[in-house]
Amino acid sequence: MKLLEAGERVLCLDNLQTSRPSNLEMLKKLEGFRFVLGDVSQPLPVEVMREARSIRRIYNLACAASPPLYQLDPEHTMLTNVLGTDRLLRLAEQAGARFLLASTSEVYGDPDIHPQPEHYRGNVSCTGPRACYDEGKRSAETLAFDFARSQRAEVRVARIFNTYGPHMRMDDGRVISNFICQALSGERLTIYGDGKQTRSFCYVEDTVAGLMRLMEAEMPELVPVNIGNPHELTIAELIDSLAEIAGAPLSPTRHPLPTDDPQRRRPDISLARDLLDWQPVTPLSVGLRRTFDWFAAELEVTESKGDNYEIDASPGLKAFVPIPATA
Ligand code: UDP
I want to staple 282 with a disulfide (CB 3.0 to 4.6 A). Which of 28, 137, 203, 312 is the partner? Predict the structure, then answer.
């Protein structure tokens, strides 16, 4: 959306695995937007290859980012990151385009230094249930840096920390969408573990601004850049912030902590500040309020269409399962 607003033409390749169809409908109405259905773990569609000459920039945002969703088909998650990144890097090489990889804070795993600067090499399990994503993204970074070192493509690597905002799916399964939908439905909030684990949440508009800034920046050296909000809070504190917005106390229910769930996470964004002159500008209270209001409106539409929602809070499963009105 921001690229279109800036006057760019956008060719969007998506397998629709985790998208919200109405997001796409919204974009399809805009001039300069073209959609191609395809999966980067497979050979790229001919409609994309035909455009190779006119492609100037490639944002590789492919891959489910929600733990329950990326763990549904771990092999596909790994291949999306490894084969998908390789295919898009080759396309960048052929097109002479600049390539940006959306990497992740998960490359730091369960970090033993805090906050996490880019030079920290991480503490990642290569065999656990999160490895398909974490190691997939680490391999994707390796490919991107190898292409850059051998001057086959100009690359940028963003390590994105927990993004949230409107237009997420209700069944995304990540904590903010789960908690907001549960609060709005009068359900108890599903805390995994003791709620003392921390995250640093970045509002989607700030993340997008950071990615676009990184893509266009002239980089003095080949380095990944953390894109995130250093405001760190525990999951229990997140519930308090949401209760203020909901205007009522929210009661939690405890569930087991998923395997390898990181205990702490907070970006050191000194590099982004220095190299990109970027930092997040949306306070958590403002971003949460916008997200809460958006989900409230969305649930109203869903209910008026006669759909109900029930919660399946087990980690590893979708949190919200739509039940057809006729069921
Ligand atoms: N979490 C939780 N309840 C939920 C969903 C997630 O307590 O309904 C916890 C999860 O265990 C993790 C944190 O919230 O410690 C962030 O989880 P999320 O899936 O949003 O992102 P990630 O683990 O990839 O940072």
Answer: 203
